[in-house]
């Protein structure tokens, strides 16, 4: 029975990956870069956009939430069957790192996200003077996370640095867990 279920999920090649983060973190630009679109024409996200990208045949759902804090409460409606969470951080935004930590740790308390692994993208690494991954790891208190498997990678939506590596980590990790079902 277990092997039938496993095969069904693998055959569907369905993997739900949610990409979230504060506004201005670079989520839209990351998606554009992954899809080889022009990254210089990103307009601010006003509201709530969902994009699906196919990566190695898997479906990745990208949640792009605008600046309004009130919208963040709606994230929870879409947590069902999430395999991985990508949390995008603006590595140049020291001011909101505390805010960013609160939002992330709040998310990790969600029961429906319990099985999901977490990739933290420290974005905008191309900007001189941006925070290092160690700064962000400390600021977000990642070492305190014991409920989820996690990793952090610096990346740049502008240059494309580490975007593929990040998605590879997510897909490989989720695949391994699907085999355990
Ligand atoms: P969001 O979807 O998370 O809200 P956006 O964020 O993708 O709209 O990006 C917000 C701003 O950050 C944009 O600049 C975008 O060009 C910039 N940005 C995103 N990723 C990077 C990156 O890796 N490096 C640099 N240098 N800038 C990045 P504007 O000026 O349009 O607000």
List keywords for this structure.
binds guanosine-3'-monophosphate-5'-diphosphate; cytoplasm; 181 residues; globular; alpha/beta; 5 helices; lipoprotein; single chain; six-stranded mixed beta sheet; 22% strand; metal ion binding; magnesium; cell membrane
3D structure, described in words:
Helix 4 (133-139) links the parallel strand 5 (117-123) and strand 6. This protein has five helices and six strands. It has a six-stranded mixed sheet, sandwiched between helices. Helix content is 31%, strand content 22%. Guanosine-3'-monophosphate-5'-diphosphate binds at residues 21, 23-29, 42, 44-45, 64, 123-124, 126-127, 156-158. Mg(2+) binds at residues 28, 45. This is Abnormal eversion of vulva protein 20.
Task: Describe the secondary structure blueprint for this structure.
Blueprint: H1 2-12, E1 17-21, H2 27-34, E2 48-55, E3 58-65, E4 84-90, H3 97-108, E5 117-123, H4 133-139, E6 150-154, H5 163-180
Parallel strand pairs: 1-3, 1-4, 4-5, 5-6
Antiparallel strand pairs: 2-3
The structure holds guanosine-3'-monophosphate-5'-diphosphate.
The site of guanosine-3'-monophosphate-5'-diphosphate has 19 residues, from helix 2.
């Amino acid at each position: 029975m277990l092997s039938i279920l496993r095969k069904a999920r693998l055959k569907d090649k369905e993997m739900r990956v949610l990409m979230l983060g504060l506004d201005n973190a670079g989520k839209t630009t990351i998606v554009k870069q992954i899809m080889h679109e022009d990254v210089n024409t990103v307009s601010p996200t006003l509201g709530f956009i969902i994009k699906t990208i196919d990566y190695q045949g898997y479906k990745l759902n990208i949640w792009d939430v605008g600046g309004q804090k009130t919208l963040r409460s709606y994230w929870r409606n879409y947590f069902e069957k999430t395999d991985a969470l990508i949390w995008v951080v603006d590595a140049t935004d020291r001011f909101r790192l505390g805010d960013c930590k609160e939002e992330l740790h709040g998310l990790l308390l969600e029961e429906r996200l319990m099985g999901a692994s977490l990739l933290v993208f420290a974005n905008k690494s191309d900007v001189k003077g941006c925070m290092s991954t160690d700064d962000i790891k400390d600021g977000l208190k990642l070492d305190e996370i014991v409920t989820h498997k996690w990793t952090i990678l610096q990346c740049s939506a502008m240059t494309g640095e580490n975007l593929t590596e990040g998605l590879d980590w997510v897909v490989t990790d989720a695949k391994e867990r699907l085999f355990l079902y």
